[in-house]
Design brief:
- The protein is mainly alpha-helical and 136 residues long.
- The chain folds into two domains: 69 residues, Arc Repressor Mutant, subunit A (Orthogonal Bundle), CATH 1.10.10; 36 residues.
- It has a two-stranded antiparallel sheet with strand order 1-2.
- Helix 1 crosses helix 2, helix 1 packs across helix 3 and helix 2 packs across helix 3.
- The radius of gyration is 19 Å and the shape is elongated.
- The mean pLDDT is 89.
Amino acid sequence: MGKKPKHTELPELSGLEREVMNIVWNLGECTSADVIAAYTKDRPLAKTTIRTVLANLRKKGYVEVVPSVDRGYRLRASVPRTAVAGRTLRALVQTLFNGSPRHAISHLIREEAIGQDDLDEIQRMIEARRSRKGTS
């Protein structure tokens, strides 16, 4: 059996693959039927398409089969959501904001409805980062 690739070495996900992965992350261990039911509850898409996406996610290394005594097999994410989120966000900042986190954050602050609690938490994160940087 080959060595598992690191999360950073896995191929990028398409938009549809990210949507299906979101469902897998939310469900935890699940069957393809569980994923289909959850996906098609809000959006129409052929069952065969979702099964194909799940097969591609397995090939790419994002989903793995869980041993089961059930007739079918069960699936689970083999990559944490945070690993994909971080990589995807870095790619978006690079592509859409010329690699500038400042521009991305500025856009979010200007354009998104951010509540006072979130703004306070962001301020605490900035202050914590500044104090860490000062002690390095």
